[in-house]
Structure formats: C-alpha cells, structure tokens
Amino acid sequence: MSGGRGGVLAALLSDDGPRSRVLAVLLLAIAAGLAATPFVFPGSQPIGAAAKICVFIMLAASYDILLGYTGVVSFAHTMFFGIGGYGVAIALDRLGPGWGQVALGVVAALGLSCVLALAIGLISLRVRAIFFAMITLAVASAFLVLASQLSTLTGGEDGISFQLPGELRPAFRPFAEPVLGLAINGRVLAYYMILAVTVLVFLGLLRVVNSPFGRVLQAIRENEFRAEALGYRVVAYRTAASVISACAATVAGAMLALWLRYNGPDTTLSFSIMIDVLLMVVIGGMGTLYGAVVGATLLVLAQTYLQAVMAKASAAAAGAPIVAAILHPDRWLLWLGVLFVLSVYFFPTGVVGRLRGGR
Amino acid sequence: MAAPALETRDLTVRFGGHVAVDGVSCAFEAGTLTAIVGPNGAGKTTWFNLISGQLPATSGRVLLGGRDISGLPASSRTRLGLGRAFQLTNLFPGLSVRENVRLAVQARAGAGADLLRRWTHRRDLIDEAEDILEQVRLSGRAGTLAAELPDGDQRKLEVALLIALRPRVFMFDEPTAGMSVDEVPTVLSLIQDLRRQGDRAILLVEHKMDVVRSLADRVVVLHNGALVADGPPAEVMESAVVREAYLGLEAALDE
C-alpha cells in the first residue's frame, strides 16, 4: 500500500474511522452481532433478520452516496435493488441452479442498472432537484408497473421462486460434525456469503467517498455552482455517483433474492422499501455511511421485533380498550413514524452526527 | 502577433427588453492588469458572468488565447485557464477552509476522477493547499468551516481558491469589498505579485479609485452595459464620460 500512515485498519476504513468512542463501540457491537448471529441466536428468525440487516446496510449506504454525499434526492433507488433481485431470480429460474447462473444474473443486472442510471443521470440531473426527484419517481413507478405486467419474464405480482446452487441449500452439510455447537448448512453459508459481500461493498463505498472523487461529491452538495466554477463537471460527477450507487443497490438486491430464494415486486420494488431506506439514512445520519449501518440495524430490528413487543404490550393492556388499540401490532408503522419524527427532531444530523458531537 | 489572453467580441446579453451587456468588444493582454469600473448596474459582473460562462450570451463571442470558448460550460472554461473569484462570496460553507482550497488544487491537478485512492494520500494536494493558505494569511483558520469565517477572511479564501487554480486569466470581482482596512493590503499585494509574474492577464472589478490608480495598467469603463472608455488610469479617470457616468448616477441618487 502507498504511504502506510495508520496501518491496515486505517486503509480498510479509508482514514475515515468512527471518530467517536460510543459510535466505535456501537459499530463493533453490530459487526460482532452480525458475525455471531448463526452461532448465538438459534432459529430462522434471527438469522433472517441479520441477513436483512446486511442487505439493507448495502442499500442504505449506497443511497447515502446520493442523498448524503452528493445531495441528490432520488426515488428510483429500489428500482436498482429490484433489478439485482430479478437478475439473479430470472437467471436461476430459467437456466437452472448454478454459480455461473448467479454470476450471469448479477452481471446482467449490473449492466442494466448502469445503463438506466446513466440515462436518468444524463437526462435529468441537469434539471432542478425537485424535478429530478419527480422524474425518478415516475421512472420507478413505470418500472414497478412493467415488472408486474411482464409476468412471463418476472412472474408478475407473484414474483419468481427459484432453486439455489447446491452449496447454499439447507440440505448441504460441508462438515460432518457441528462447529461450535452449530450444524453448518447451506443456509449458514449463504448468510456468511451475504455478510462478506456486505463488508466488501461497505468498505468499497467508504473508499469511494474518501477518495478525491468522493470529496468532489461533497463539494457539489455544498455548492454546486462553485464546484462547476472550479472546473468540475457537475453533471458527470453526479452521473458517476448515481451509477456507483445503483450498482451497489443492485448487488444488495441480488443478495436479498439469494437469501429469500425468491424475488417479487413486494420484496425489492415497493415504495415502502424506498421509504424504509430513506428513514435508515436519515435516522442513522446522512453523509456518514456509518449512519447507514446504524439506521439499517435499528430499522430492521424494529420491523422484525416491534410487532412482537407491541403484541405483548397490547395483550398486557387488554383492560384499557383505547391503549390496547393503540398498541395493537397493526399500528407498528404508526409507532415507527413517531420514532422517526422524534429522532429527526432531536437528532437532525442522525445518530452518527449526534455521536460525533455535531450539531 | 500572439492572440490576446482574453477577448470579447460584440458580447451582448438581453433580459427581455433590457440590454444588460451591450456589444462589448475588448481584448486583454497577458502581463497587464485591467481595472473595470462603472456605476452599480453598469453590467460589470454580468459581463464577467458571460466571460466565465455562468450566463449564456445572447450574441457575441469570448476567446481565450485565441480559442473560441463561447459555447463551453463554465467548468470547461476554468480547465482551459480562465479563473474567476466571485463578488458575493461563493464557497463550500460546510467544508473546512483547508478543504475549500484543497478542492481547488485538486480541480486544477485533474485528480477528481480518482476514486480508488484515499484523498489523505494525496499529500501533494494537501501541502499545496497549505502553502496557498500561508500566502493569503489564513493558515491559522485552516480547520474552521468556511461558513464560520468573518467576511474579510471569506474574501481571502475566495482569492485563495482562484490562486489554487493557477489560471492564465484571473478575474477578480471586488476582491476587497467588505474587508477591514488592515486586511486590504494583503490581498492587493497578492494581486500585485500575480501581475509581476508577467504571463497572466488580470481583470479587476473595483470601486475604490485609489486601488485602481495604484494597481491598474489600464482602465475600462462600463456604463449601461456598454464600454464607454478605455485607456491608462490617469487619462480615463479624468475624462468627461467617466465623470458623467459616475456623476450621472450621483445626480440620480440625489433626486
């Protein structure tokens, strides 16, 4: 490596560490938790939640490149997420289970995402922010409709269920004996594959935002006009950021499909996912990338366990009809909304911004 | 004969029925400092905007070293050597003073497309930014956010960004406006240093007549969007048109 200042850890984190002891501990806890989940928490729900956290870390981090670093508001991010999912699903469904098909699906999806991100970027990043947001919304809606209508290719509303390569199936047992008390099977391998991809994508994005290129993105966010006057072609930089962001989202979508052995409009394309990602980035802290880790973890945990907690609370409050109704598990979105409003009000710079001692 | 460093030919911009810059033709040679004067609303900043590409011209041409740059976006003009400092301070408010200058150095070095290396490993860019901060006497403020600088220091930072671009043509738009009296000499001596290097053309919009007299090789007067006088400072500033341009304004204000 060049330079050698700060060593391997600094190189991995691209000289952009947590810069807060509490945040460092929190991130280490999340990383340790994700690494240990299959061994520590038995059952399918915890490992499913952990896999979802990984996928959403990638998705939220890639969205932060646009929203937090470049100052671009796009609603088409789930489209790229969906393209990744459909790429893998269609390849494995049509061509049969195999690693070559996985690679083909991912590569084809990345290609389509690049082309679409380039097209949206070049056509509409020249217009004002609000119009750009509207255009992305329109494109994403069109894509959602298209995915639902082209049922011969995409399975329509039902989506596509498919077979995984043998090594990722539950029946695959690489070791005769349990390791640390856990019988390793294809599901566990699939989980660790997703975790490894997440680490790679996250560190890659961290490098991008801490490169000379990434610093230009922040300059564009701060003062687009001045960035242009310094000689930076703002449209080119924004478009490049959109392409990088889209590619990372595509990889995240592919990983989700591999985990679920399924892809459909509801799992990767729906607008509620877009809202979730927006919440993750804002709650975690825009323009920090680490915020995506914190935000994705908080939100997925809330989505997975808040309903269960509320069901218990609601049952406990059965005597008081209004309280019980408010705490009914079906209202969990309401409570999530309240949490969101409170967190934005009290931590306008997100959890990470707050922990780093920002305003 | 070599082409002038910068030239505008019949440069015009209309906003509806209003002609803000009216057929201005003017050439600037390397090694000279030209002051551009005129009352408020004369079209000085608008003319600058047409030259640097912030505003598209209705008609006319801009030539940089003989090359027609009329159709190019602002970023391309900057990369070709046309540097501009802005009248209303125009910085990256949420970034540090050092990072503001480093971004300008990085732009000039053409390093912005590098997305695999850490920016912290481009020591050369950081060191050059530090040197420029030293020149404009802002080293003590390097870690401060640009938004938190006092006005005078923001002006100096604006000048620092321009120096970092190392352009062939420097365009200063009232670089000392809003500065305290003891800060003005720092900026003026910087501009003088640039002129002494002899190979750059410097354009300076300035209201302070003593500054114009002491720095300029040539004075160009704009009035109602048109070029009304052009010549050595002593000559131009005594001329009837200039007095009329300024006195006319004063008379209008008195009414």
From TrEMBL, chain A:
Entry annotated with the keyword Transmembrane: yes
Domain of life: Bacteria
Membrane topology annotation: Multi-pass membrane protein
Name of the featured protein: Branched-chain amino acid ABC transporter permease
Keywords: Cell membrane, Membrane, Transmembrane, Transmembrane helix
Matches recorded under InterPro entries: ABC_transp_permease, LivM-like
Natural source organism: Alsobacter ponti
Membrane-spanning intervals of the chain: 21-41, 73-92, 98-123, 130-150, 189-209, 230-257, 277-302, 309-327, 333-353
TrEMBL record, chain B:
A Pfam family assignment: ABC_tran
InterPro entries associated with the record: AAA+_ATPase, ABC_AA/LPS_Transport, ABC_transporter-like_ATP-bd, BCA_ABC_TP_C, P-loop_NTPase
Annotated GO MF terms: ATP binding
CDD domains registered for this protein in UniProt: ABC_Mj1267_LivG_branched
Domain ABC transporter: 6-249
Keyword presence, Transport: yes
SMART domains membership: AAA (SM00382)
Gene3D superfamilies documented for this protein: P-loop containing nucleotide triphosphate hydrolases
Record flagged with keyword Glycosyltransferase: no
Matches recorded under SUPFAM superfamilies: P-loop containing nucleoside triphosphate hydrolases
Keyword annotations of the record: ATP-binding, Nucleotide-binding, Transport
PROSITE patterns in the cross-refs: ABC_TRANSPORTER_2 (PS50893)
Record-given protein name: ABC transporter ATP-binding protein
Organism: Alsobacter ponti
